[in-house]
TrEMBL record:
<dbReference type="GO" id="GO:0003677">
    <property type="term" value="F:DNA binding"/>
</dbReference>
<dbReference type="Pfam" id="PF19054">
    <property type="entry name" value="DUF5753"/>
</dbReference>
<feature type="domain" description="HTH cro/C1-type">
    <location>
        <begin position="18"/>
        <end position="72"/>
    </location>
</feature>
<protein>
    <submittedName>
        <fullName>Transcriptional regulator</fullName>
    </submittedName>
</protein>
<dbReference type="Pfam" id="PF13560">
    <property type="entry name" value="HTH_31"/>
</dbReference>
<dbReference type="InterPro" id="IPR043917">
    <property type="entry name" value="DUF5753"/>
</dbReference>
<dbReference type="InterPro" id="IPR001387">
    <property type="entry name" value="Cro/C1-type_HTH"/>
</dbReference>
<dbReference type="InterPro" id="IPR010982">
    <property type="entry name" value="Lambda_DNA-bd_dom_sf"/>
</dbReference>
Length: 278
């Protein structure tokens, strides 16, 4: 790749810097929006990284905010942010999880009822999409392809680091049937042997734990280009959280869950044992 990151990191970095410069200039959101001839809602979405911004508007913002000292850097970020991510060819939004994971260095994933996406087989993924019903039948194949492409980063020269805590329930639920689930469990045991993948199984016998209400994922990025982000999927969508206290709380929960779970070697043996029962 010619660029070190996908378009998402430049867009989010640009958003943070533009907000910082506006605040240094002591301009309110309403005042700045009026001067830039955009709506307050539009400027707010730009500053939150929820909407792209073209180079011409960035120039106007830098003029208004007296940001000449970082002119070249921010214009370069604006140009990088206009590129298309690989996932767009598959109809996946720039504002979802896949785009962020593409640039992450470490993924810490706790799952209660599902195998982590980075460890799923195509048959398992297809069965999940079909059961959930959120993706039209004609699009399921493309979504499965995206999930498989994501896993390529586990085998890259600079691989993604995955730390997963998976509840026993996720391993015993026969998603796609017994044959497909056995294949899935064997796939988990193979991937868990990679040096950049750490699997911890949380046995049902462990009882109550600190995240009974649901799964969550914490994404960490290389070279501090972005702060850690917390991702929480739910039945009708997902939350993207970057508030430091909430992300820190999730990291602490993940550490506590890992402490209650089996160690990596015992976890792989457990997964193989469950596979052997099918």
């Amino acid at each position: 790749m010619a660029e070190p990151f996908s378009p998402i990191v430049p867009r989010l970095r640009l958003a943070r810097e533009l907000k910082r410069l506006r605040e240094i200039a002591r301009l309110s959101l309403d005042h700045a929006a009026k001067e830039l001839d955009v709506s307050t809602a539009t400027l707010s979405r730009i500053e939150n990284g929820k909407q792209g911004v073209n180079v011409h508007l960035v120039r106007s913002m830098l003029d208004l905010y007296n940001g000449s000292d970082c002119w070249n850097e921010l214009l370069d970020l604006a140009r990088q942010a206009r590129r298309k991510g690989w996932w767009q060819e598959y109809g996946i939004s720039d504002y979802g999880y896949v785009a962020l994971e593409t640039d992450a260095a470490v993924v810490r994933d706790f799952q209660l009822t599902l195998v982590p996406g980075l460890l799923q087989t195509s048959a398992y993924a297809r069965a999940v999409f079909e059961a959930e019903g959120d993706v039209p039948s004609r699009d399921i194949g493309r979504h499965v392809d995206v999930r498989m492409l994501r896993q390529g980063r586990l085998h890259a020269d600079e691989p993604l680091v995955l730390e997963a805590v998976v509840h026993e329930h996720a391993l015993r639920s026969l998603v796609g049937g017994a044959v497909a689930m056995r294949e899935q469990l064997l796939n988990i045991s193979e991937l868990a042997a990679l040096p950049n993948v750490t699997l911890h199984v949380l046995p049902a016998a462990a009882g109550a734990h600190v995240s009974m209400q649901g799964a969550f994922t914490v994404l960490s990025f290389p070279r501090d280009v972005l702060p850690d982000r917390l991702y929480i999927a739910h039945s009708t969508g997902a939350l993207h959280i970057e508030k430091v206290d909430q992300v820190r709380a999730a990291r602490l929960k993940f550490d506590r869950l890992r402490g209650c779970a089996l160690d990596p070697d015992a976890s792989i043996r457990f997964v193989r044992q469950v596979a052997g029962e099918l």
